[in-house]
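Students often ask why inverse folding is considered easier than folding. One informal answer: many sequences map to the same fold, so there is more than one right answer. In these notes we will look at a single instance of the problem. The structure comes first.
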């Protein structure tokens, strides 16, 4: 393991004013996105869509890295260049989603899952590194519900996250550690705060037990928000304060950066929350974005399968807004101006 390299990669992933584009939708997930815009889910369309995103002029100013699905890592751009090579030529670090998805947890609570993909991971990581990947992602999913998440789900997922992270570091690949507490239930923000706190405590315990080098990871958590179905929705400042309260308690200062998932928040709200946290500032780690939907929704709609330039414009705008939020320099007026 090359600790210096891991540390440098992790720092580059959270460089000031930059964040990650999560474009690692599995074939099944991208099918749902394409269905909404009436685009058929076939390989040439997935290639054309990702080509549009990765050839957006100037997006590299705000984008430190892109998380790819395995198909894309080994795919070529429309101009015939390997996607990881194209990204690296712009100074954008290629990354790879390595988990095999959240599967029902045996003897877990209702709807609880454990993320699979550890078997054979060491060999796969070697292949991904050779293809240019310098960081990876593994997403664990925790559901808030009646009696959930259970201790079983929290511990099992934390254990798997740490096993994945240790394997990545052995291969000189920076692990993005993503324990996602879902935001779509009817819980209050207080419940989200308690659950996120419990989950992060367990995740960092496991990372410690399994000798993961904290200087060489990036944490990708949910924000502390009101569940989407909760009748009372906390405002931007409360979300920022409660999220920082949990993170400062649970995330050691050795971690170079935290890159949030958007988790179904609207584009603008995801930006506003990140911006509010960075405006509070004075934090031990960098705080940035690793958004999927909140970076791509507008671009996907504008593209619609054919309008490449419109798609690029929409992508660049969202990347820029989030780049500003990563510095605490975003302003709502900038959205209207655009
Ligand atoms: P969202 O920002 O759409 O939640 O996706 C981020 C991600 O990569 C989830 O694993």
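Output (designed amino acids):
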């Amino acid at each position: 393991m090359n600790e210096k390299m891991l540390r440098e990669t992790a720092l580059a992933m959270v460089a000031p004013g930059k964040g990650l584009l999560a474009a690692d939708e599995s074939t099944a997930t991208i099918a749902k996105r394409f269905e909404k815009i009436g685009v058929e889910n076939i390989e040439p369309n997935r290639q054309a869509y990702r080509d549009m995103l990765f050839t957006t002029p100037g997006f590299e100013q705000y984008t430190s890295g892109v998380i790819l699905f395995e198909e894309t890592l080994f795919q070529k751009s429309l101009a015939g260049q390997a996607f990881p090579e194209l990204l690296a030529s712009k100074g954008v670090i290629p990354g790879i989603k390595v988990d095999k998805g959240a599967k029902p947890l045996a003897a877990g609570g209702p709807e609880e899952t454990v993320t699979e993909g550890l078997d054979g991971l060491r060999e796969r990581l070697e292949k991904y590194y050779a293809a240019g990947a310098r960081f990876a992602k593994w997403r664990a999913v925790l559901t808030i519900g009646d009696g959930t998440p259970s201790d079983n789900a929290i511990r099992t997922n934390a254990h798997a996250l740490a096993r994945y992270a240790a394997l990545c570091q052995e291969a000189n690949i920076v692990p993005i550690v993503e324990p996602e507490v879902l935001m779509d239930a009817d819980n209050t923000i207080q419940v989200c705060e308690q659950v996120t706190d419990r989950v992060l405590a367990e995740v960092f315990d496991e990372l410690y037990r399994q000798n993961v080098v904290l200087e060489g990871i990036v944490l990708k958590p949910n924000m502390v928000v009101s569940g989407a179905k909760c009748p009372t929705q906390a405002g931007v400042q409360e979300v920022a304060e409660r999220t920082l309260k949990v993170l400062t308690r649970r995330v050691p200062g050795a971690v170079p950066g935290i890159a949030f998932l958007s988790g179904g928040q609207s584009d603008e709200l995801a930006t506003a929350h990140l911006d509010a946290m960075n405006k509070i500032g004075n934090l031990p780690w960098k705080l940035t974005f690793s958004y999927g939907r909140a970076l791509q929704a507008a671009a996907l709609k504008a593209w619609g399968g054919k309008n490449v330039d419109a798609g690029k414009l929409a992508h660049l705008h969202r990347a820029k807004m989030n780049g500003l939020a990563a510095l605490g320099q975003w302003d709502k007026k900038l959205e209207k101006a655009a």
